[in-house]
Design goal:
Elements (H helix, E strand, L loop, with lengths): L1 E7 L4 E7 L4 E9 L7 E5 L5 E5 L5 H13 L12 E8 L10 E2 L2 H9 L5 H17 L5 E5 L9 H4 L5 H7 L9 H15 L23 H9 L1
């Protein structure tokens, strides 16, 4: 079973393709400067050689599409057909109080991630674009999301509440969600791989929306989180 793991940011996409049979990494790299001039994809070949490919990528859909093209390349690729990818896992920064566990992407999950964009406006919006780009290009491929905040979901109330009116927590989700240090992100991506690997190879999901998430200005709640967390 081959699993593709994506970490989509506001203007970047990091990826790794795993062979779950022997836990080996078949391909890895990253796209930078999506929507900007001089966008490029950098990758590491199996022999350790690094390669940079310049490519115009106006949006995440084209970024994901170029990742797929690179994976299929006869000289530097790792697969012969996209059907070899059994599932795609995504790292999501913020699941708020809605998501404490990894889950399969459905329209309801997408909407939940979008509803929490105020808590991580740049990151969650980028993650959504990546999910929708994969769905547009591979609509029958299962996708799984894993949330950074899930690592700290067992924090007791006295540890995650701030000394501000309780209404801020009830109405705007103002609370401490914990650290997103690189070691935690690495651990969570491993969780995504493990979960996705349990999916049936021929599993299918309802088609999700391919539209861009609505962009909303930073809320006062998010400003408080950035100040105190």
């Amino acid at each position: 079973m081959k699993i593709l793991v994506l970490n989509c940011g506001s203007s970047s996409i990091k990826y790794k393709l795993y062979n779950m049979d022997d836990k080996s990494v078949l391909a890895q790299g990253g796209v930078e400067r999506i929507g900007l001039d001089e966008a490029f994809l950098k990758l590491t070949l199996p022999n350790g050689e690094k390669k940079v490919i310049m490519h115009d990528m106006p949006d995440h859909k084209e970024g994901v599409n170029f990742v797929f093209q690179t994976l299929l390349d006869k000289e530097i690729g790792a697969i012969n057909d996209l059907s070899e990818i059994d599932a795609v896992g995504h790292r999501i920064v913020q699941g708020g109080d809605k998501f404490n566990d990894s889950c399969i992407v459905t329209p309801e999950v997408e909407q939940g991630i979008e509803d929490l964009c105020d808590l991580a406006p740049v990151h969650n919006a980028g993650h959504l674009r990546g999910i929708r780009a994969v769905d547009a290009l591979m609509p029958a491929t299962p996708q799984v999301v894993v949330f950074d905040n899930a690592f700290h979901s067992t924090m007791p109330e006295h540890a995650f509440l701030y000394a501000v009116p309780y209404k801020f927590y009830e109405d705007y989700h103002v609370r401490r969600y914990g650290s997103t240090a690189p070691v935690i992100v690495t651990y969570l991506n491993a969780c995504a791989i493990t979960l996705v690997a349990t999916l049936k190879p021929n599993a299918s999901l309802p088609a999700t929306s391919a539209t861009e998430p609505a962009w909303r200005p930073l809320s006062s709640a998010n400003a408080l989180i950035r100040l105190w967390d």
